[in-house]
Amino acid sequence: MEFASMDSKALKQYREQLYKRYKDFQGKNLKYNMSRGKPCKEQLDLSMELLNIKEYENEDGLDCRNYGIVDGIPEAKKLFSKLIEVDEDEVIIGGNSALTMIYDTLSRAMLFGVSENAIPWRKLPKVKFLCPCPGYDRHFAICELLGIEMIVVDMKSDGPDIDTIEKLVAEDDTIKGIMCVPKYSNPDGITYSDEIVDRLAAMKTKAKDFRIIWDNAYIVHHLSENGDKLKNILKACKKAGNENRVYIFASTSKITFPGSGVAVMASSSENIERIKSKLIIQMIGPDKINQLRHVKFLKSVENIEEHMKKHAKIIGPKFSEVLNILESELGGKGIAFWNKPNGGYFISLNTLDGCAKKIVKMALEAGITMTPAGSTYPYGKDPRDRNIRIAPSLPSMDELKNAIEIFCICVQIVSVDKLLNSR
Amino acid sequence: MEFASMDSKALKQYREQLYKRYKDFQGKNLKYNMSRGKPCKEQLDLSMELLNIKEYENEDGLDCRNYGIVDGIPEAKKLFSKLIEVDEDEVIIGGNSALTMIYDTLSRAMLFGVSENAIPWRKLPKVKFLCPCPGYDRHFAICELLGIEMIVVDMKSDGPDIDTIEKLVAEDDTIKGIMCVPKYSNPDGITYSDEIVDRLAAMKTKAKDFRIIWDNAYIVHHLSENGDKLKNILKACKKAGNENRVYIFASTSKITFPGSGVAVMASSSENIERIKSKLIIQMIGPDKINQLRHVKFLKSVENIEEHMKKHAKIIGPKFSEVLNILESELGGKGIAFWNKPNGGYFISLNTLDGCAKKIVKMALEAGITMTPAGSTYPYGKDPRDRNIRIAPSLPSMDELKNAIEIFCICVQIVSVDKLLNSR
Predict the structure, then answer these.
(1) Taking CB atoms and an 8 Å cutoff, what residues of chain B touch A146?
(2) pTM confidence score
């Protein structure tokens, strides 16, 4: 029954029951963490073979232990360019984090501009980025650190609000880019439709140095048999005559080891050449032994897809369990709405307006750490204070059941309070 | 006999003999590389045990495979802070390259300034750095990329010309720093004296945000039993009341694997805290498994010192051989002057003025790749065109003998030509 249609007395009575359950849980001194998209131990164990690989000579006889090669060993380029569906001269294979590559790309844009003739962004009075929201807090943190002003764009069911985006970028040349997690978006789990990809690639931008940060973090991270398909944006950009518009990022962080993976970026060969000309000065080179380890372990794109099925087998049931509990505890009550993702690491839940912060606080006081409310918006400010990101991967199944049950109790209590207060 | 005191006829005859030897070598189609301080295969083999280490849980039970920890695992902090002789809260343990950490430190200074209240250097019309020369080409390349104007300061036998440095920094507040390789300097092999360290730490600088980049790249890289001792500059800075003045860097690149080592930076805890506040946004964290591997393999500072003796046993004889050939081919001829380093990776040789470029070119035409002449000065411009950096580590002993003999022939031919032309 919808809470809104219950009378105040019934709501108050129901609140008492909820509160008793909450207090019971609180007495148990639980401590669960659902704040980050962190793989669990069983997932990490899937890649233990990595630690057995002792090879250090690559296919060309290069000694990977020594200095040399700033953009990745050839076999790593081969494998990851296939994964991203670009050419080998369109990739750079990096260290252990795509986020570092994203920061690095943006800090280079600030310091040196995005191309030979472009003005370094640091010289401009204002630089703005579009941020589809809810979105990834660490993207927003990078923009904030670099002094890039963020403009919220709403996420729709097929990607960000492209009509608004087209309008904004056509008018304002201080808008220099957009932050995208185009597949199984963080936190909504939405994959951009072909139309959205095409329009992002082809739209007229007043800024000639407009760039799309295309963080394809969940490129092979399906939860169901039939994973979503994302259109190739580099191809779309080329077709539209905007081949330098996009920087694509991916990594093995959630394929092998989050702390010791291999990251990759892709872009037009012109962009890649320019980046390499700076990289060769700013670094000695990535850890080539670790790249070789990954190539030997991951072998092929087909094998990566097989490997990812093992991940799905571990975290898929966790997602299902969360969705089941959400449905049984909150379904039909008209107080919360959530997505059912086909992949990625999150379930995004919207509460009644103005409830998210209170719910997250209340959950924390019962030992459940959620991502702070507001994190999915720039500057930590969710204008409607309603979005909460749930990350089911890390806790064990038992922990997860408890944690989500407590969370659902909190959602209900705070919602009842809101409804009662507004009467 | 000194070339300058030989008559022209004798010089010409001698040149003919030299040129015959040169041509003979040229006919052999040799291909040797002495351009970079690159360890040889035997050195890399010293650390093969690294690849056998499969541990991933640290002493606190932390799973190093997963996300987390931006500044290094505790045991790595313990080991490397001891090596650098600083406290554990004064280090950050990074990825595989100190050079990347140096670039990163300077690019942060450009973007955000070096402290909360300091102006970001990008906002200043001019930023200058002092560069003791001859020096490290990759330091100069970073300054050039970031638009930092470089001022040459001469190296003396006990470190850079400190009288000149003190005078310059006292007068000019656009001088924001100095680039130092304080131990077994690149390429001279000079270790700064205690007095130089103290004066750098205590000198009055007009710029309040003056910083010393202290690239202690050869911290344990001795070639003789009694290695040089370098005074602790962080302590000296603290004593002088300038505790935030210095950033120290080191790495295991030439201890274990150049491409897959562990880098470390050290500074005052205040500086380290500020850097961490940015790092936590710009990156996910370093490769913790590789840090753990290194701690397990290197164990202790004492063990590192023992390990370095094995390196010295491999490259020490190469240095001796080079020095012997230089002495027998060039000694007493008044055309070249070189150092005899106690450690590090280079022998620095000065020719007669205006000869270095020609010699390196001539050597290349006989198959010997040297570091390009001029590289040891900012912008690749050696004002006297005389400094040549010799890197003996990579070639085998036989290759090295040939290479240095050819090099010495080139030095003599070009010197004879210079002397004859000036008569």
Answers:
(1) 111
(2) 0.97
